[in-house]
Amino acid sequence: MAFDIEMIEKVYANMAARVDKARDIVGRPLTLSEKILYSHLWEGMPNQTFTRGKDYVDFAPDRVACQDATAQMALLQFMHAGKKTVAVPTTVHCDHLILAKNGAKQDLELANKQSKEVFDFLSSVSNKYGIGFWKPGSGIIHQIVLENYAFPGGLMIGTDSHTVNAGGLGMLAIGVGGADAVDVMSGMSWELKFPKLIGVKLTGKLNGWTSPKDVILKVADILTVKGGTGAIVEYFGEGAESMSCTGKGTICNMGAEIGATTSTFGYDDSMRRYLAATGRQGVVNAADKVASYLTADAEVYANPEKYFDQLIEINLSELEPHINGPFTPDRGTPVSKMKEEAAANGWPIKVEWGLIGSCTNSSYEDMSRAASIVRQAVAHGITPKAEFGINPGSEQIRYTIERDGIIADFEKMGTKVFTNACGPCIGQWDREGADKQEKNTIVHSFNRNFSKRADGNPNTHAFVTSPEMVAALAISGRLDFNPITDTLINDKGEAVKLNPPFGDELPTKGFDVEDPGFQAPAADGSSVEVVVSPTSDRLQLLAPFEAWDGKNYTGAKLLIKAFGKCTTDHISMAGPWLRFRGHLDNISNNMLIGAENAFNGKANSVKNQLTGAYDEVPKVQRAYKAAGIPSIVVGDHNYGEGSSREHAAMEPRFLGVKAVLVKSFARIHETNLKKQGMLALTFANESDYDKIQEDDTINFLDLTEFTPGKSLTLEFVHADGTKDIISANHTYNDSQIGWFVAGSALNLIAAGKA
């Protein structure tokens, strides 16, 4: 079935006129990204040209999606907004709160028991406010969105950075914080700085061991984790058209790892095939009527250098399989270079685990191609040297691959099949022996491989690669195994060379499922009661943040000067902390515990200026809050990269941090800080970062003159009485300054002033 077909048809009904008007106003051919953006303006018909990377623009997204870890806070905020029902189609997906340990059945049973309170809350709120609810075990949010909701030319937002996965079906799908989602669910516009555009021209065709995953691994290596910040990446060319829809989804999914606003592909036959296979022929019929509007104008792709701010060209016929890592997804190594790179860097060669799945690579095609490698190993009598686990992307995928014998193929090699959920990809993995913190290597088909992300062990070297390469490396047990050239020894002592992977793009017998796990909301939810116990340690109703008093912040203390990479995982860890995602006070006990203190090189150890002693970051900040003393956080480049989790902004706000001053921000985190009424500032001169001292007291000198485009001046008073005056830039417009003044964007919504 096709959800929301009336909404989709309405989008298409408006698209031609709006795009034609935009083309006239802009005065040139349009990219696909521009067509979607201009056709989703809040005011409807375009009436002006927007400048990329400069103009803030109000948009009208078609839908919202939330996963259970972020949905708790988003829905708690939505309840505070005082609305009767959501204004746009919205779904909640229970995929994060399931710990991978023993296998699908036992792990799901345990999750339903341990997180019953949270699941019941999400179910009841969804039922009350007209939200579609996908139960635990139904699958991973982005795979379910691709299978059921994504459509070419649409605009959606989601409270997870990998919402961008839906670009595989020609959408602009953008990760946001919960406060942004609440705006849209409340019937308000959604603001975004008009993105710059990066074009990626794909020539040639994938062959042999190379897969769509290798395209984004190569792009990440080129652009780095911040190279796509503020930009949409639009893929095109013969190579793009030759790939499957789910392969395109994989590429878009990992666009989050280069900081891109989102990524997308033009509407083509692979999308038609996928939509039809997933029961959405009606969407195909509607899309075909406006097909020329669902891809860029021909002139754009013929002369892309004229229309994109940056252009990258990749010949798929020459592309090698890549293995990216460790500790960052943008460190790319072609498989042919891994032997020398691993030796030069001292990476552990022995592979302990191979993991396939997550929202990035859990499609039927992914499972099918990986299984083709497993079948060869079993047929040749090759015993796998590493442990192996898979997470199917949805119950529909799991049911179908079980029917087609793919799960049985995996199980013949001793594979552990985990629940249809995120699992190890987000640290929800109870890995035996991880607590010993031994140096080791794992390979996976996930999207992120930051330190401690998968199993909590800072010494686990995690490498990102394609599902088929994960299978080959896990079977060989060696990181430096090159399946293109190397052989394996079977149980008869014979040398065996693996053939390249193969698999069906879509199941030849069609998809099938008994119970997809969907719960439709009540037609009238007014009588549905949502109960949150005041003694719960999992859920906590929100109180409004205090409005700004109109005065300069003075006497503020430096909480921490974070050194190097500080992702949202460092600011608000996942793993065991996920259970507190609906309880702001409890989750705040993990605030910045993973950040490295620039003054002592340690994590979760900062100086309490009231006592002179070193203590855990949250404890020191709670001491400042109790004493009524404001504080600030100082950080490095790309601060807040990674997950969209707004807890990384809400926790410091809740505990009394007033400002975050860094060299540069990741996009979503900067917006989250603004939404929560905090000051998100950047050094006007990056070298001023070095002037910040451990015992500094900070005074804002001109916050009372806070206006768009005007830098703020901060006085850093050092322990010896000397001072440094530092200029801080910001990107606040008038509306965003209004959020700061009111105490948060949500305060304005609740007051009916937004």
UniProtKB/TrEMBL annotation:
Regarding protein family, the annotation reads: Belongs to the aconitase/IPM isomerase family.
Output the superkingdom of the source species.
Answer: Bacteria
Keyword tRNA processing among record annotations: no
Uppermost EC category: lyase
Protein name from the UniProt record:
Aconitate hydratase A
Organism field? Flavobacterium aquaticum
The Aconitase/3-isopropylmalate dehydratase large subunit alpha/beta/alpha domain sits at 34-477
Gene Ontology CC: one annotated term: cytosol
**Reactions catalysed according to its record:** citrate = D-threo-isocitrate
Q: Name one Pfam family in it.
A: Aconitase
The UniProt record lists the keyword Transit peptide: yes
Record's keyword terms, sorted: Iron, Iron-sulfur, Lyase, Metal-binding, Transit peptide, Tricarboxylic acid cycle
Which NCBIfam families does the record cross-reference, listed alphabetically? Answer: aconitase_mito, PRK07229.1
Q: Which residues form the Aconitase A/isopropylmalate dehydratase small subunit swivel domain?
A: 558-686
> Biological process GO terms, please?
tricarboxylic acid cycle
| Recorded GO MF terms | 4 iron, 4 sulfur cluster binding; aconitate hydratase activity; metal ion binding
Cofactor(s) essential for the protein = [4Fe-4S] cluster
Enumerate the InterPro entries for this protein. Acnase/IPM_dHydase_lsu_aba_1/3 (IPR015931), Acoase/IPM_deHydtase_lsu_aba (IPR001030), Aconitase/3IPM_dehydase_swvl (IPR015928), Aconitase/IPM_isomerase (IPR050926), Aconitase_4Fe-4S_BS (IPR018136), Aconitase_4Fe-4S_dom (IPR036008), Aconitase_dom2 (IPR015932), Aconitase_mito-like (IPR006248)
EC identifiers of the protein: 4.2.1.3
Q: In which pathway does it act?
A: Carbohydrate metabolism; tricarboxylic acid cycle; isocitrate from oxaloacetate: step 2/2
**Leader peptide range in chain numbering:** none
